[in-house]
Design brief:
By secondary structure, the chain is α+β, with helices and mostly antiparallel strands. 37% of the residues lie in helices and 20% in strands. Strand 2 and strand 3 form a beta hairpin.
Length: 593
């Protein structure tokens, strides 16, 4: 399409009659046919059709050729809003505006003249002004991106003033790299998300810059990295780092050769954890996991599903369904979602209901509602453009946030860190002789150390305790005959998890939920969790925090009356043991309440 002069009218009143003898006639026929196929294909094809139409046709006399295919006014309003930039308090040039709208950040000197600092700005794709124009915001994560240092780490020479100015303007720049004597050219730009410079492979290939391949350019670094990279990747996989982040290890180490962070999210039951895994460069030029920061956002726990007239489970479902990356809080954003074709009025209605419900929860007479409102706000709104959706919850949500930094040694899985933060014990590993020998020991989170900011915040549990041996003692009663099931249960308990086991199913249709207690060298039954999983919800609330040892539970199983007597033995521990109501006090057959 770029070879055609679209300023010329190729579609007169009789659109089928192209200008006689036009040298581009055959090519235009092909373009029209291909555009029609795109429009009639799938969603991705229609997206490409609309982008091509906007780029080449819609602003020319030939736009009328599209009238039978698409609503031109709707196309303009739906897409041109992406190309509107009206910075109120930030003076930008036409080049900077183009780069901002193309998704790249720019750098500006801010502050009073005598103390100006460079700061990064980018378009926030989640926000719109009332007129549909884009919102420019500071990018706080890029304050520490030092361009000269980053370029030299990648193998580039100290950049010229012109190159620095171009990157600061948001442009893509051709740089000359030299790594261990191998020279190559690449096109790079600043990446605000990962605080780095990124090589644009597609553009570099387009301009024929891959005459020297990455393998040739970074071959020596890759060869050196192979001495430790496979072990580092295996370690990251073993502790639960996801595949995209494991794949990123090689790129960061080989191309940039510097310390970096991996960000990952974990969902456990109704809780959410945001992990920041710090991969650091060591003095001997290898890399290892230095520390892991875990940011825990607990899910709500409530005694009644309806609190302060709010249906809490339904409220959480609405919050799960909302796209909180979009901004629904500012007056301009609300007007945008209400009035503009690109807005999401239906989602705005859901958000308005969420806002009202959170306010009712927080301000109602039942004080439990305030705690649940803060918990939901922390879980779903924290670090989003909607953090101030209900201003009264902001302070409470910040007080509920728990952030703990764990050392890289001993080594814990990401799941173990979550369990440690939930006051359970987890097994950590220490390695010697290049990870060939490992020592496994039990640890607990030391709350006093955590509050005082002492590192490491964990305490070694003295003595030895074997989960496998403890389960083996009860092999005749505990139904873990399959090796894979036994192995999964042992690993789960060693990581601090709450694991389900079945006992005599004639007496117990529901599983018992147990966890490891190496201090007392026991496997403990969590009565509240067991009752809740068996749908004994009222008893579960009454027995919250109550436990009993697995040994005692198994002994009680042995003492239980025969099934023919029709009596279900109470195994609930210390509360209400003498109750005459067998249905009120039992862990037996599952019963809906």
């Amino acid at each position: 399409m770029g070879r055609i002069d679209w300023s010329r009218d190729w579609f007169p009143e009789n659109r089928r009659a192209f200008i006689e003898g036009a040298p581009q006639r055959s090519l235009i026929n092909d373009i029209v046919r291909d555009m029609t196929r795109l429009q009639e294909s799938n969603a991705e094809g229609r997206e490409v059709f609309q982008q091509l139409a906007l780029k080449f046709l819609i602003h020319t006399v030939n736009g009328k050729a599209l009238e039978g295919m698409v609503n031109l006014e709707q196309l303009r309003s739906g897409y041109e809003k992406k190309l509107i930039l009206q910075p109120d308090d930030l003076s930008v040039t036409a080049l900077q505006a183009y780069n901002l709208l193309d998704g790249r950040p720019i750098m500006k000197k801010m502050g009073v003249p005598e103390s100006q600092d460079w700061e990064w700005f980018a378009v926030n794709p989640a926000k719109r002004n009332p007129d549909g124009s884009s919102v420019i915001e500071r990018v706080s994560d890029m304050q520490d991106l030092m361009l000269v240092l980053e370029l030299t780490r990648m193998g580039g020479k100290i950049p010229s003033y012109e190159d620095l100015a171009a990157i600061r303007n948001g442009s893509k720049v051709l740089i000359h790299l030299e790594v261990d004597g191998v020279k190559a050219d690449r096109i790079v730009y600043a990446d605000p998300q990962h605080m780095r410079l990124v090589i644009d492979r597609a553009e570099s290939e387009h301009y024929g810059l891959y005459q020297v391949t990455d393998e040739e350019l970074y071959g020596s670094r890759r060869q050196k990295a192979q001495l430790f990279l496979p072990a580092l990747q295996a370690q990251a996989t073993a502790i639960g780092v996801n595949k995209p982040n494991v794949a990123r290890l090689a790129e960061e180490i080989i191309v940039r050769d510097r310390s970096f962070d991996l960000i990952q999210e974990g969902i456990y039951d109704n809780d959410r954890v945001v992990y920041l895994v710090e991969v650091g460069k060591n003095p001997d030029d290898d890399f290892s996991i230095h520390q892991i920061r875990a940011d825990l956002r607990k899910g709500p726990h409530f005694s009644d599903p309806v609190i302060n007239t709010v249906d809490v489970p339904m409220l959480e479902k609405m919050m799960q369904a909302a796209d909180w990356n979009q901004d629904f809080t500012g007056a301009g954003s609300v007007q945008f979602h209400n009035r503009h074709p690109g807005g999401n009025k239906e989602m705005l209605d859901v958000v308005s209901q969420v806002q009202a419900d959170l306010q009712y929860l927080y301000a109602g007479p039942n004080l439990e509602g305030a705690d649940i409102a803060a918990t939901l706000a922390l879980k779903y709104l924290k670090d989003s453009p909607n953090e101030q959706l209900v201003p009264s919850t902001v302070r409470a949500m910040n007080q509920k946030q728990v952030i703990i930094t764990f050392p890289g040694k001993p080594e814990f899985s990401l799941e173990s860190l979550y369990h440690l933060m939930n006051n359970r014990f987890a097994m950590g590993k220490r390695f010697a002789e290049g990870r060939e020998r490992e020592t496994r020991e039990w640890y607990k989170l030391d709350r006093e150390k955590t509050l005082m900011g002492i590192n490491p915040p964990i305490t070694l549990v003295p003595g030895e305790f074997s989960v496998a041996d403890s389960l083996a003692r009860h092999a005749s009663v505990v139904e873990l005959k399959m090796p894979t099931l036994l192995d999964r249960t042992v690993k789960g308990l060693e990581s601090g998890g709450l694991m389900a086991i079945h006992l005599d199913r004639k007496q117990f249709a529901v599983p018992m939920f147990i966890y490891a207690d190496p201090v007392n060298k026991e496997l403990m039954v969590d009565l509240a969790a067991t009752l809740a999983k068996g749908n004994f919800l009222e008893q579960a609330m009454a027995f919250k925090g109550e436990t009993m040892t697995l040994d005692r539970l198994i002994n009680l199983v042995g003492e239980a009356p025969a099934a023919k007597q029709g009596h279900k033995k109470w195994l609930g521990g210390s509360k209400n043991e003498s109750s005459d109501d067998p249905d009120e006090n039992n862990l037996g057959k599952s019963r809906k309440k």
